[in-house]
Amino acid sequence: MNNNDIKRLSRLTAILTQLQTKRILNSTTLAEKFGVSVRTIYRDIKALEQAGVPIFTEDGKGYSLMEGYRIPPVMFTESEANALITAEQLVMKNRDSSLSKEYAEAVNKIKAILLYSTKEKADLLSKRIAVSPAIPNTNTSNSLTLIQNALTTFKVLNITYHSEGKDEITKRNIEPFALYYNLQESWTLIAYCRLRKDFRMFRLGRILRIEPLNLSFTPHKLTLKEYLDDKEKKFQNP
């Protein structure tokens, strides 16, 4: 196998990975990303199709994978595995128990597919990393993963919320927009509140009850950067 064949094989694998992580990709975007011509991307897509990969071509839009199709897990390098294992110790200190649980399960799956020699090193590293006990290890919420799912599927959530300032408890239907991690090491949900008819920030630790509803909402055109920039302006000019 010559160098050109190796480059093409690497590019085909990368294209397949990109298709799996995004809904639709066009040939121009792929060509710019990999530094090749659009014609080369056409040939690459055809090669993947001939190999049995179910790629849909949407005229005027681009390419997408058949719903539910998945490629085998990508092997992690030693450095990539080490980075994830190091981060695990910090995630375990996170104040949302659902995130800690899901991350631990994800790392276990990653460890399971590592090469034997890399796995031994990863196990050694995990035993040689510690986080200061001065950092609190108290879970204040367990709803982060539920909220993440509602956020990405545009589902309305019904919450019972304990407001800090007014010390009142209210029930609200909210449209999850974004998640924000503040200096107090706790998660805050930015959402459109149907009760207040405006965007609000809800501390996960103050959500007493949360339930996903079988209601969808239209994605908001506002970007997270626009929202945060507006909040900063209001903070500087109250």
Apparent shape: globular
Q: What gap, in angstroms, lies between the N and C termini?
A: 65 Å
Total discrete domains: 3
Q: What is the count of DSSP helices, taking H or I runs of 4+ residues? A: 8
Estimated structural class: alpha+beta
User: Which superfamily, in CATH terms, is the homologous superfamily of the largest domain?
Assistant: Calcium binding protein CcbP, beta-barrel domain
Question: How much strand content do the residues show?
Answer: 15-25%
Mean pLDDT: 84
CATH architecture of the largest domain: Roll
Pattern of helices and strands? HHHEEHHHHEEEEEH
- Radius of gyration from the alpha-carbon trace, in angstroms: 23 Å
Number of strands: 7
**Major sheet:** 5 strands, antiparallel
Care to give the gist of this entry?
With 238 residues, the protein is an alpha+beta fold.
What does this structure look like?
This protein is α+β, with helices and mostly antiparallel strands. The protein folds into three domains: 3-65, Arc Repressor Mutant, subunit A; 78-127, no CATH class; 144-236, SH3 type barrels, CATH 2.30.30.530. The chain has eight helices and seven strands, in the order αααββααααβββββα. The chain has helices spanning 3-21, 27-34, 38-50, 78-91, 97-112, 116-127, 144-153, 224-236; strands at residues 55-58, 62-65, 155-162, 169-181, 187-193, 198-203, 207-216. A five-stranded antiparallel beta sheet has the order 6-5-4-3-7. The protein has a two-stranded antiparallel sheet with strand order 1-2. Helix 4 (78-91) packs parallel to helix 6. The radius of gyration is 23 Å and the shape is globular. The termini are far apart. The model has no long low-confidence stretch (mean pLDDT 84).
